[in-house]
Predict the structure.
Amino acid sequence: MGGAGAGGYGAVLSDRRFAPWLALHAVFALVFLQFLAAGSIDMARHGLSPSAIGMALAVNCALIVSLQPWATTRLARLAPERVLAGAAVLLGLGYGGYALCATAWQYALATAVWSLGEIAYMPVAATRVADLAPAGLRGRYQGAYALSWGVAGFAAPAIGPSLLERFGPVALWGGCLAVAAGVALGQLAVARAARQPGEPAAEGTAAARAITKETCP
Protein backbone atom coordinates (compact mmCIF):
# COMPACT_ATOMS: atom_id res chain seq x y z
CA MET A 1 0.00 0.00 0.00
CA GLY A 2 2.71 2.51 0.97
CA GLY A 3 5.35 1.40 -1.52
CA ALA A 4 4.91 4.18 -4.09
CA GLY A 5 3.46 6.95 -1.99
CA ALA A 6 5.24 9.95 -0.55
CA GLY A 7 5.54 8.17 2.75
CA GLY A 8 6.26 4.69 1.45
CA TYR A 9 9.34 2.76 0.47
CA GLY A 10 9.37 4.52 -2.89
CA ALA A 11 10.40 7.67 -1.03
CA VAL A 12 13.16 5.75 0.72
CA LEU A 13 14.61 4.31 -2.48
CA SER A 14 14.36 7.63 -4.33
CA ASP A 15 16.29 9.47 -1.61
CA ARG A 16 19.52 10.42 -3.36
CA ARG A 17 21.38 10.64 -0.08
CA PHE A 18 20.12 7.43 1.49
CA ALA A 19 19.68 5.01 -1.42
CA PRO A 20 23.39 4.95 -2.41
CA TRP A 21 24.34 4.58 1.26
CA LEU A 22 21.89 1.69 1.65
CA ALA A 23 23.35 -0.05 -1.41
CA LEU A 24 26.84 0.23 0.05
CA HIS A 25 25.57 -1.13 3.35
CA ALA A 26 23.97 -4.11 1.63
CA VAL A 27 27.28 -4.95 -0.04
CA PHE A 28 29.09 -4.56 3.29
CA ALA A 29 26.55 -6.92 4.90
CA LEU A 30 27.02 -9.45 2.10
CA VAL A 31 30.76 -9.52 2.76
CA PHE A 32 30.39 -9.44 6.53
CA LEU A 33 28.09 -12.47 6.62
CA GLN A 34 30.67 -14.66 4.90
CA PHE A 35 31.99 -15.62 8.33
CA LEU A 36 28.70 -17.49 8.76
CA ALA A 37 28.30 -18.59 5.17
CA ALA A 38 31.81 -19.70 4.22
CA GLY A 39 34.18 -19.14 7.14
CA SER A 40 33.62 -22.41 8.94
CA ILE A 41 33.62 -24.32 5.64
CA ASP A 42 37.02 -22.91 4.76
CA MET A 43 38.38 -23.77 8.20
CA ALA A 44 37.08 -27.32 7.93
CA ARG A 45 38.76 -27.66 4.53
CA HIS A 46 42.03 -26.92 6.33
CA GLY A 47 41.39 -29.81 8.68
CA LEU A 48 40.31 -27.80 11.73
CA SER A 49 38.02 -29.55 14.19
CA PRO A 50 34.67 -28.02 15.25
CA SER A 51 36.21 -27.03 18.60
CA ALA A 52 39.10 -25.26 16.86
CA ILE A 53 36.68 -23.44 14.58
CA GLY A 54 34.63 -22.41 17.61
CA MET A 55 37.74 -21.12 19.35
CA ALA A 56 38.69 -19.00 16.35
CA LEU A 57 35.21 -17.51 16.05
CA ALA A 58 34.91 -16.97 19.82
CA VAL A 59 37.46 -14.18 19.39
CA ASN A 60 34.69 -12.19 17.74
CA CYS A 61 32.39 -12.46 20.78
CA ALA A 62 35.20 -11.70 23.22
CA LEU A 63 36.21 -8.53 21.40
CA ILE A 64 32.64 -7.28 21.07
CA VAL A 65 31.94 -7.75 24.77
CA SER A 66 35.18 -6.11 25.86
CA LEU A 67 35.53 -3.28 23.33
CA GLN A 68 32.07 -2.29 22.08
CA PRO A 69 31.03 -0.15 25.08
CA TRP A 70 34.39 1.62 25.11
CA ALA A 71 34.55 2.15 21.36
CA THR A 72 31.05 3.48 20.74
CA THR A 73 31.39 6.77 22.60
CA ARG A 74 34.82 7.46 21.13
CA LEU A 75 33.84 6.72 17.56
CA ALA A 76 30.89 9.09 17.98
CA ARG A 77 33.34 11.99 17.87
CA LEU A 78 34.47 11.14 14.33
CA ALA A 79 32.83 11.78 10.98
CA PRO A 80 30.55 8.79 10.34
CA GLU A 81 31.70 8.22 6.76
CA ARG A 82 35.29 7.93 7.96
CA VAL A 83 34.33 5.40 10.62
CA LEU A 84 32.30 3.35 8.15
CA ALA A 85 35.08 3.48 5.57
CA GLY A 86 37.67 2.43 8.15
CA ALA A 87 35.40 -0.37 9.32
CA ALA A 88 35.07 -1.66 5.76
CA VAL A 89 38.85 -1.65 5.38
CA LEU A 90 39.25 -3.67 8.58
CA LEU A 91 36.58 -6.10 7.43
CA GLY A 92 38.37 -6.57 4.13
CA LEU A 93 41.77 -7.02 5.74
CA GLY A 94 40.42 -9.62 8.15
CA TYR A 95 38.73 -11.66 5.44
CA GLY A 96 41.66 -11.15 3.09
CA GLY A 97 43.82 -12.60 5.85
CA TYR A 98 41.71 -15.78 5.77
CA ALA A 99 43.26 -16.52 2.37
CA LEU A 100 46.62 -16.93 4.13
CA CYS A 101 45.40 -18.91 7.14
CA ALA A 102 45.85 -22.59 7.87
CA THR A 103 45.81 -22.92 11.69
CA ALA A 104 43.22 -22.02 14.32
CA TRP A 105 45.43 -19.28 15.74
CA GLN A 106 45.90 -17.71 12.33
CA TYR A 107 42.17 -17.71 11.76
CA ALA A 108 41.68 -16.25 15.24
CA LEU A 109 44.04 -13.37 14.43
CA ALA A 110 42.31 -12.62 11.14
CA THR A 111 38.94 -12.85 12.90
CA ALA A 112 40.14 -10.26 15.42
CA VAL A 113 40.90 -7.84 12.59
CA TRP A 114 37.48 -8.02 10.96
CA SER A 115 35.82 -8.01 14.39
CA LEU A 116 37.30 -4.55 14.99
CA GLY A 117 35.60 -3.47 11.78
CA GLU A 118 32.30 -4.89 13.01
CA ILE A 119 32.66 -3.09 16.34
CA ALA A 120 33.22 0.21 14.56
CA TYR A 121 30.55 -0.27 11.90
CA MET A 122 27.42 -1.49 13.66
CA PRO A 123 26.54 1.39 16.01
CA VAL A 124 27.56 4.09 13.54
CA ALA A 125 25.58 2.52 10.68
CA ALA A 126 22.43 2.33 12.79
CA THR A 127 22.67 5.96 13.83
CA ARG A 128 23.56 6.97 10.27
CA VAL A 129 20.17 5.66 9.17
CA ALA A 130 18.49 7.85 11.79
CA ASP A 131 20.52 10.87 10.65
CA LEU A 132 19.62 10.45 6.98
CA ALA A 133 15.92 9.72 7.54
CA PRO A 134 13.31 12.49 7.54
CA ALA A 135 11.57 12.73 10.89
CA GLY A 136 8.30 11.29 9.57
CA LEU A 137 9.88 8.36 7.75
CA ARG A 138 12.33 6.97 10.25
CA GLY A 139 10.36 3.74 10.59
CA ARG A 140 10.47 3.20 6.83
CA TYR A 141 14.19 3.92 6.69
CA GLN A 142 14.93 1.56 9.56
CA GLY A 143 12.77 -1.05 7.86
CA ALA A 144 14.77 -0.71 4.64
CA TYR A 145 17.98 -1.01 6.65
CA ALA A 146 16.73 -4.19 8.34
CA LEU A 147 15.54 -5.58 5.00
CA SER A 148 19.01 -5.08 3.51
CA TRP A 149 20.38 -7.39 6.23
CA GLY A 150 17.77 -9.97 5.28
CA VAL A 151 18.68 -9.77 1.59
CA ALA A 152 22.37 -10.11 2.42
CA GLY A 153 21.61 -13.03 4.73
CA PHE A 154 19.79 -14.78 1.89
CA ALA A 155 22.48 -14.09 -0.72
CA ALA A 156 25.61 -14.74 1.35
CA PRO A 157 25.18 -18.54 1.69
CA ALA A 158 24.44 -18.80 -2.03
CA ILE A 159 27.48 -16.80 -3.14
CA GLY A 160 30.30 -17.45 -0.66
CA PRO A 161 30.36 -21.26 -0.51
CA SER A 162 29.89 -21.48 -4.28
CA LEU A 163 32.91 -19.25 -4.89
CA LEU A 164 34.90 -21.21 -2.33
CA GLU A 165 34.06 -24.52 -3.97
CA ARG A 166 34.62 -23.39 -7.52
CA PHE A 167 37.58 -21.01 -7.26
CA GLY A 168 39.14 -21.69 -3.85
CA PRO A 169 39.80 -19.60 -0.73
CA VAL A 170 42.16 -17.08 -2.34
CA ALA A 171 39.49 -16.03 -4.81
CA LEU A 172 36.76 -15.82 -2.17
CA TRP A 173 38.67 -13.99 0.52
CA GLY A 174 40.63 -11.87 -1.92
CA GLY A 175 37.32 -10.91 -3.49
CA CYS A 176 35.98 -9.94 -0.06
CA LEU A 177 39.01 -7.70 0.43
CA ALA A 178 38.51 -6.01 -2.93
CA VAL A 179 34.77 -5.51 -2.45
CA ALA A 180 35.23 -4.15 1.09
CA ALA A 181 37.84 -1.68 -0.20
CA GLY A 182 35.31 -0.56 -2.80
CA VAL A 183 32.71 -0.06 -0.06
CA ALA A 184 35.19 2.07 1.90
CA LEU A 185 35.83 4.32 -1.09
CA GLY A 186 32.11 4.43 -1.77
CA GLN A 187 31.30 5.61 1.76
CA LEU A 188 33.63 8.56 1.36
CA ALA A 189 32.34 9.38 -2.12
CA VAL A 190 28.66 9.15 -1.15
CA ALA A 191 29.16 11.39 1.88
CA ARG A 192 31.06 13.92 -0.20
CA ALA A 193 28.37 13.93 -2.91
CA ALA A 194 25.57 14.34 -0.35
CA ARG A 195 27.23 17.27 1.37
CA GLN A 196 25.86 20.67 0.46
CA PRO A 197 28.29 23.23 -1.05
CA GLY A 198 30.18 24.92 1.75
CA GLU A 199 28.91 22.43 4.36
CA PRO A 200 31.74 21.15 6.61
CA ALA A 201 32.35 17.45 7.11
CA ALA A 202 30.25 15.93 9.88
CA GLU A 203 31.88 15.25 13.22
CA GLY A 204 29.77 12.28 14.24
CA THR A 205 26.14 11.34 13.81
CA ALA A 206 23.46 13.24 15.68
CA ALA A 207 22.40 10.24 17.75
CA ALA A 208 25.98 9.30 18.49
CA ARG A 209 26.86 12.86 19.49
CA ALA A 210 24.00 12.78 21.97
CA ILE A 211 25.45 9.60 23.47
CA THR A 212 28.85 11.25 23.69
CA LYS A 213 27.49 14.29 25.51
CA GLU A 214 25.79 12.09 28.07
CA THR A 215 28.59 9.62 28.73
CA CYS A 216 31.92 11.30 27.96
CA PRO A 217 33.67 13.86 30.16
Remarks:
- DSSP finds nine helices and no strands in the chain.
